[in-house]
Amino acid sequence: MFPLSLPPLLSYPLSGLEFPWGPKPFAEVVAGPLLRNNRQTTDSSSLEGHYVGVYFSAHWCPPCRSLTRVLVESYRTVKESGQKFEIVFVSADRSEESFKQYFSEMPWLAVPYSDEARRSRLNRLYGIQGIPTLILLDTEGHMITRQGRVEVLNDPECRLFPWHPRPVLELSESNAVQLHEGPCLVLFVDAEEEGELEPAKELIQPIAEKLMAKYKAKEEETPLLFFVAGEDDMSDSLRDYTNLPEAAPLLTILDMSARAKYVRDVEEITPAVVEQFVGDFLAEKLKPEPI
């Protein structure tokens, strides 16, 4: 993911926010004409009742171009299935010419490149720090996930659309980027074959679901993502990078942005052990070790 270099927040009027500086709804921030690549325009009100992907991307960014190729196929697959789905491209291109060239490859809508204020408000609304980023919204404009990129790449047949977050993920190369999104609980287990991770997922899933439900009720993002990891190159690389012991099972919480880790090395991992570990972490009772 490429970082975005944006002007400081206070260089813009605070029109994307409202007192007491809470975010405005997506429909209000995106309000205005949207483009199609055939130069026709449609009003943003046409998005009502649709699932929406808000796609922050740019032609100069190689991972963006790679994702766009996949996303075009996913978009067509979902539309052909009869789902009400639309994508809005929010460009981070460096010129209108680059925007037009890139947008010509896209079958969806875009905020006009000339409307820098609206593009900036959308960036601020979702706290965009790098591209590509695909934010997925439900039919009411509420966020489903910030991880649209990962979901699309992991589900090429779009069977899991609209890609609600799964409580527990199996660590893989395609979703490892989420380890940098915030604190992550990772349960390392001795598993090499497909299906051997299921008991570990079943062990921590009720705890993950409970936490997701608690924060969803408060309309807040879950403060902890949950992974299970087996014996493979991805897990080995993560252990090496974070200087973790080779023990399995091994219960950890990794906070990459804070370069901190928390390790619970016990002989048996039970739901009670996991729940206590999570509770202590959220209550800031655990002492971090440096990564």
Structural description of this entry:
Residues 8-182 form the Thioredoxin domain. Belongs to the nucleoredoxin family. One of its GO terms (molecular function) is thioredoxin-disulfide reductase (NADPH) activity. The protein is an alpha/beta fold. The protein folds into two domains: 2-154, Glutaredoxin; 169-290, 3-Layer(aba) Sandwich (Glutaredoxin), CATH 3.40.30. The protein contains eight helices and 17 strands. The protein has helices at residues 26-29, 62-80, 96-103, 116-125, 148-154, 198-217, 233-242, 271-282; strands at residues 2-3, 17-18, 22-23, 33-35, 41-43, 51-57, 85-91, 109-110, 130-131, 133-137, 143-145, 169-170, 184-188, 225-229, 250-255, 260-264, 289-290. Strands 12-14-13-15-16-17 form a six-stranded mixed sheet, sandwiched between helices. Strand 15 and strand 16 (260-264) form a beta hairpin. 34% of the residues are buried.
Task: Please provide a brief summary of the model.
Its EC number is 1.8.1.8. It is an enzyme of class 1 (oxidoreductase). The protein has helices at residues 26-29, 62-80, 96-103, 116-125, 148-154, 198-217, 233-242, 271-282, and strands spanning 2-3, 17-18, 22-23, 33-35, 41-43, 51-57, 85-91, 109-110, 130-131, 133-137, 143-145, 169-170, 184-188, 225-229, 250-255, 260-264, 289-290.
